[in-house]
Specification:
With 211 residues, this protein is mainly alpha-helical. 70% of the residues lie in helices and 3% in strands. The chain has three helices and two strands, in the order ββααα. The protein has a two-stranded antiparallel ribbon. The chain is rod-shaped, with a radius of gyration of 26 Å. The two termini are 34 Å apart.
């Protein structure tokens, strides 16, 4: 995904062509739509809803990232004790499995953090795409309902912006799927060692209580 460009504010013919820090090159000043009847602005509702959904997903991903980070920190504390037990264990098989269990636990928890961060990136890309569609909807309304005030608005510009941002959002979803698949592999590896530990230790190690 591309890094949002640093943009300079510029107003041309009543259209906000670029805005500092907004992440979108082409925008339409919402004030320009005030004179247009509400029934002619229905197309904005779906676009606004998409923006809200993307914001909610971003917030959920941030919360999950905090939870995942705390779980990783707890795992690091647990692993310290597990490795001490492994060092003191006389049974070679149990010693090896305890060390592997500790390693897999950290790898899994790190992967959970990675997944939450990938979701955050994807949510940001989805938000920018939703905002691009919202700006296009405003531009189209202006062209159709107030053409005299929209002579400087080029739908080609807004279409291109939407296309680029939709591509970024699609790439974000692909990246998230890859990270999720890697997280699933790490979790499966941890669960596999946990089952082996339960069998060899008679349930002393590797049980669900460990998480």
């Amino acid at each position: 995904m591309r890094t949002p460009r640093h943009l300079v504010g510029l107003i041309a013919g009543g259209m906000l062509v670029a805005s500092l820090g907004c992440g979108l090159r082409y925008r339409v000043d919402r004030d320009l739509l005030e004179s247009i009847p509400p029934e002619d602005k229905l197309a904005l509702f779906d676009a606004e809803n998409d923006v809200l959904i993307a914001k909610d997903e971003g917030e959920a991903a941030r919360n999950d990232r905090e939870d995942a980070q705390r779980a990783l920190e707890d795992a690091e504390d647990d692993v310290s004790s597990i490795r001490k037990r492994a060092d003191a264990e006389k049974d070679t098989r149990l010693k090896t499995l305890l060390r592997a269990w500790a390693d897999r636990k950290i790898e899994w928890r790190e992967a959970e953090v990675d997944l939450a961060e990938a979701r955050m990136d994807a949510a940001h890309a989805a938000l920018m795409a939703a905002r691009a569609r919202y700006e296009r909807a405003k531009a189209l309304i202006m062209k159709e309902r107030a053409p005299r005030r929209a002579t400087d608005i080029s739908m080609k510009d807004f279409d291109g912006q939407v296309k680029d941002r939709n591509a970024d959002a699609a790439e974000g979803l692909k990246d998230t799927d890859k990270v999720r698949a890697e997280r699933d592999k790490k979790r499966a590896a941890y669960d596999d060692v946990s089952r082996q530990l339960q069998q060899i230790s008679g349930g002393a190690y590797g049980g669900p209580w460990a998480d």
